[in-house]
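Lay summary. Proteins are chains of building blocks that fold into shapes, and those shapes determine what they do. In this project we predict the shape from the chain. Here is one chain we studied, written as its sequence of building blocks.
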Amino acid sequence: MKEVRVLLVDKDECSVFFVTHLLKKNGFDDLVVVNNGFDALNQIKNQQFDLILTELMVPGIGGFELIKQVRLIPEYKNTTIITITTLSHHREECFKVGATDFIIKPIFNSLEFIRRIKTHIGVF
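And here is the predicted shape, written in a compact code that computers can read:
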């Protein structure tokens, strides 16, 4: 599998632990984790990521605004951005602001989660 640089944005330590474990177990070792939108945007402006996973309800710049701002950066126009959230009623809004996919927490099916990521970034 090619090296994929991942940014995970989530304030919930349990979610971070679980998602990080799943990603690393499946070969996604180049992983940066931040717990707020401001730090996420700083990371995005200073380095290139192949995949961004974000919760919607994070401190600072929330997930919706983060996605909007990322999509304004030319290098990130086609980058995969997946929201991982408990807020199932925001699905349509996520797609409107530029999310590539929408995954509901808790993640019950880890195989499906990893498969969806790999499909979006073209890695099998």
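What the prediction tells us: The chain has a mean pLDDT of 95.
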